[in-house]
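anyone else get weird line breaks when pasting these?? whatever heres mine. first is seq + tokens for prot A
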Amino acid sequence: MSFPRVLSGIAALLVLLSLLPLSTSYGQQKGPEYVQLKVACTTTLNVNLQTGVDMPDAYVCKNTKVTWKANDHIFFVFFKHDCPFGANGCKEIDNKYPTAGPIASDTFTVYDYGIVVDGKLFDPHVIGGGGN
């Protein structure tokens, strides 16, 4: 047996021995992991003709009002299913009455709404509730 073969055999054996004390996670189940997501609370949405509003997915914090800023556009807002602003809070949101709220829900919910800007329909969302 040559010297380089002996050396490479010893090196291979040392590598294998160094891997033995490593723990593996195979067979061990961990519980679910959680992350905390921090986003800025939206209080103003700027109406435009490109996307309807500047934030198509607006995060609105609990107990916060939202104002749609017309920017010289004619618009109206309608919520397709549930209203995040209470039973009567979604009846009239338009360029004359642009403020709605506050959101009082404790449940983190996506509210699908439509906004018609100068006759053109858009489909943004308000994401609200779930605490402050």
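and prot B, same format (seq, then tokens)
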Amino acid sequence: MSSSIDHSRSLSSYRPFSMLIIGAGILAAVMGCASTQDRERRALSEEFDKWLGQYKDTRIIEKGPPDRCVAQGGGSEICEWRIDGNTVRYLYDANGIARRWKYMDRQLGEMKGAQHPATAADHIHESEAAVWQTIKDTFDDMQFTPMGGR
């Protein structure tokens, strides 16, 4: 009988250690997922940032026509491309140059980018929040009409 009690005591001494190992494994898995999402977000940001300061026509040549565009005041325009069920929108100035982007991803959430004011000669002087709210309101209020389907 004392042998089974000793065996039970020795097993219970391993329990805290095994719980620590399991906890460390779970933590590593969670951190691995987060870092994978961070890498994905960085890669997407770099991809979208490369179009800032570029003409809309340049993006159209390489990525195809936008799914829709909406004219804004002052000659600016917002154009939207759908990518794998997600959406990227660019704000183009009156000269057709991309100044800002916003990406909505079901898994990664919302991401934004803007051309640095020092490199944007005719930078739009509205607050970023106001611009993106206007973009959202504009697209939310209009019905979807494909560019070629008029």
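btw re prot B: The chain has two domains: 1-49, 51-141. Residues 2-49 form the longest helix (48 residues).
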